[in-house]
């Protein structure tokens, strides 16, 4: 244990800090870090170096080189910089490299040097040029703050949703501030800058002077300032050598330290651990590194090489040409176990190989601290970087668990899983040195998988998903989809081979959309590959929109028809109509009967003229005739126009060899002319009535001769005419005329309808007149309708018809018809004897 704590450095009485190596860097830098623009992403992210950034001593013909490395120094990308001079580099939360140029343009590159997009910080920045820039992170995303040559600040709090904000002017500012930084308070970004001995805070509305409480006197300038990783604390380095530390709101002082060095430091960053009460600041000069806090002494390290500090959530990463180290506060659990002369419960469990292990365990059990001791070992294992020490602590925790009856195993199992994932991504070839405080405490597994995918480490990402048993849609499927999107960008492989490889790998994996992969292929200019990939897409609703976007409309129409989704077919048809000329559009429809039928349905409701053109092109005279008939009533109000449209329809029917429809159309034309003449001569409303209604209207108007003439002209059968006249006279209750009509000649419909009509009009008296004239086969029914049950019984008995006897018997009610019922029963009995 004594050897283990050899690199622990005390800062006061309550905290220890240690620095250990993450990687031995092998990135073969040709220049010192001081000669490069450097940007390192937090959470073990990549490092970007822009070499030769327009140094005067370099030849003008030498172009700068932008190199991107992993945290372990593995090269990820290298490209010649062909754009304008760069003032600052920085990484976004999505690990995109933001390059701020002198003209205010911000170029965005991916992790592998692929250009993503660019945006401008505004005309004012363009005119006045950029003096300095900061890339910062907020809960809304990544932001950019610019200091222009006019000594004005412009910022955007989220480059993903660019909204530029020009900050207020600082009164009397004639030169660049000695130092400045971005503060995020109450979800709003502010600028804090130093001008001589004064500090100014810029918000969206005003510029206000601020004074740090408890600042040592004699300060004439602030040389450096640093805000903590969480934007809660602020550190100020003054020209007197004092370092003031307090809250970012500048309302409370935490401590002040005199480092006795008045030279401005190269860098100053915070070094704190989540949920720790200790606060410390790391200050770096050319060959010295100092850790200061609320203690009279500081921790000092000698820097053998030019180094760069990267603030992290729980410490500081320090990298140079040869090494990459991590400086942080020793966690409380580790301190309890490994501190010299520590009496913490975890110490006893970890000393299980000691001769007094049994005595230690019994003592801890008696004090009821064994559960706490096991938890300390588990937690300390999470904060260790070396796998051997992790295993030792977990074995100690496992040993201590054996003496506990009900210790929940969840924390132990979860720590083993997390450490296995952390060790995998910390590997030199992967180069993501995350700590336990960063993952899983801050970064989620989904974010970690996204970062592995961004580095194209698909096999490792899939292994982690399978190890953690993540749902396919959240894990393996999503990673395979990203792999496929990367695969389509490999232009040295044929379309056929890429499509086959993707299908063999993905198959029917749930959650994978072939249409998304095809869209990526189309975006890369590989249209044929996109079409091949769409063949594997089972959802037509995803295939068709992309095919339309690729201007493969005819193929899209075939896919939409195969799907059977009429809405999808209509979508393609409307797209084709706008894309093709009229002739080509109609020819395309002719080759697709289902699409043609659907388009006709659409035209019937929306575009009648187009429908007529379709029928004409197809020589479909039958449908063309039907079209003109509908048009004659829908569009024509004048009788002449309607008759003309009907004549056109009749001609079309003759061409279609449908003589029945043609004759019917001609009859309708005759009827319309006749109705128009009747309206002129008799008045009233005849137009648009049917033939039957016209006859009925004439009878109701007392124009019987005209009605009969109309019937003869249109060859209405006698039976139909008698029915029309019978119904009309009954509705008029013209019983006398009805009787005359019945006697005019023998009724072709018989006389039962007369009885029925009279009964319907509640006139039994008139009905009885016709009951006697009803033929023998309908006599019983007629007598029953007029209520003569007795006579109906006599007729039924006379006919000896069982059905008629039953019908009469069903109409016999109570004592009134009792004799008639008995009479029928006797007749039935006699018939049965015979």
Molecular structure report:
The strands form seven sheets. The protein has a five-stranded antiparallel β-sheet, with no helix packed on it. The termini are far apart. Among the domains are: 31-269 and 302-318, YVTN repeat-like/Quinoprotein amine dehydrogenase (Methylamine Dehydrogenase, Chain H, 7 Propeller), CATH 2.130.10; 350-576, no CATH class; 775-833, no CATH class. With 834 residues, it is an alpha+beta fold. The chain has 32 helices and 29 strands. It is a peripheral membrane protein. Plays a role in vesicle-mediated protein trafficking to lysosomal compartments including the endocytic membrane transport and autophagic pathways. Believed to act as a core component of the putative HOPS and CORVET endosomal tethering complexes. One of its GO terms (molecular function) is actin binding.
Brief characterization of the structure:
44% of the residues lie in helices and 20% in strands.
Give the integer mean of the pLDDT values: 86
Q: So what's the CATH class of the domain at 31-269 and 302-318?
A: Mainly Beta
The number of E-state strands comes to 29
Question: Can you tell me the CATH superfamily of the domain at 31-269 and 302-318?
Answer: YVTN repeat-like/Quinoprotein amine dehydrogenase
Radius of gyration of CA atoms, rounded to a whole number: 49 Å
- What level of helicity do the residues show? 40-55%
Q: Distance between termini?
A: 129 Å
InterPro entries: VPS16, Vps16_C, Vps16_C_sf, Vps16_N
GO molecular function: actin binding
Function: Plays a role in vesicle-mediated protein trafficking to lysosomal compartments including the endocytic membrane transport and autophagic pathways. Believed to act as a core component of the putative HOPS and CORVET endosomal tethering complexes.
GO cellular component, one term: HOPS complex
